[in-house]
Amino acid sequence: MTLTILRHRLANAAFCCGLLGLIALTAVPMIATPARADTTATAQNEKIVRDAFQRWAAGENVFQRLLAEDIVWTIPGSGSVARTYRGMNDFVENASMPLVSRLATPLVPHVEHIWAVEDRVMVRFNASATTTGGHPYRNQFVWFFRMKDGKVAEAEAFLDLAAYEEVVANNAPRTR
Asked: Where are the beta strands (DSSP E) in the chain?
């Protein structure tokens, strides 16, 4: 096979792959988005969550305003914190406070991406803080929310539970 023929074949293959890639890029959003998605509700739910994460990153405690009082919050996995929490008090006292009380600085989120479709919002973010022992705490999170009346009614939170457990086990809680 001559070099010229090889070049033409490679160029044709690249063109075909590029064309297939372009078709895939235009088709995937149509496949991934429900045909009758309520774009108004989707945009509103995404804005509520995006605004809350921006305020959280700026130092505001947003969870009382973002989460429904009767929230159902699930942390899948294995570990002492992995279970379903029912209601704001159960979640705050048994999932949030064991970690937050052992942080000397606020946990600051850095949002990687937010996706929303109708009443569902997914947030992929990293967060970091300094523990009461002076060590860095960094974790990666993916939170899935089901929104209802402008608040998170249900949440499923994925995170590195080993990092969470290490902070809780090796750092004293702050004194009030």
From this structure: 67-74, 84-86, 108-117, 120-130, 136-148, 151-159
